[in-house]
Amino acid sequence: MTPTHSSRKRFTRCAANVAAAIGIAFLLPSLTVGSAASAAEIKVMSTVAMSATLDELKPKFETATGNKVTIVYSLIADLRKRIQEGETADVMILSRAALDDLQGQGKVASGSIVNLASSYVAIAVRAGAAKPDIGSVDALTRTLLAAKSIVYADPAKGGASGVYFAKVLDRLGITDQMKPRTILVPGAQAAEIVAKGEAEMGVAQASEIVPIAGAQLVGPLPGDLNNVTVFAAGIGPASKDPAAAKALIQHITGPVGAGVLKSKGMDPA
Q: Domain containing 50 — which CATH number?
């Protein structure tokens, strides 16, 4: 039987569809491989003061970009020492002062440092407790001497707020009087200890107090005792994907990041 014109057209159309399907079948694996290959793995070394912010922003960034972010948290003094000894990361988040110093040593890519936010050393009490008077240096001194217990980061471990507050106690002349009622913690756990009712007052960065349920921020240290830390991010000089590292920093400093920073007790840069 001789095929009609219309049947020939149907056969041709069918053959074209099959060919297209075969082409797509071969193309899909290459697209998947291409996407996987373009996804970056970003290592971050960050101060614990930024942990609440980064823990909230990380999944949003990963979903938006497909990149994978791994974060190592520690105290600034510890991170700085590790970086000086050769450990590195795609993104380093420390105090601006620490990053400037590391950049001078060639441990941070030149010109890559960006300010993220600032936070102040603050007093915390348990949620629901009356806020003590810390409105002046004299009021703070009276409040500290009246406290049954106080907790802050162990200065010997290098926690910035603990190192600073130890100097405040020296300046107020009450170091010896406070020792019997002082609890020292290795890192950023002061607000958690207060929230559990294991200490009456705590001293930490505001960003380490605000995210903790059960703790409330009283306010900054008064007058010239106030201490503000600027936190910044820099890119590691050996980063395999500086563009992805820069994208993460821009995510933190962008509108979404700014909102999260504020909610965690920080002032965006």
A: 3.40.190.10
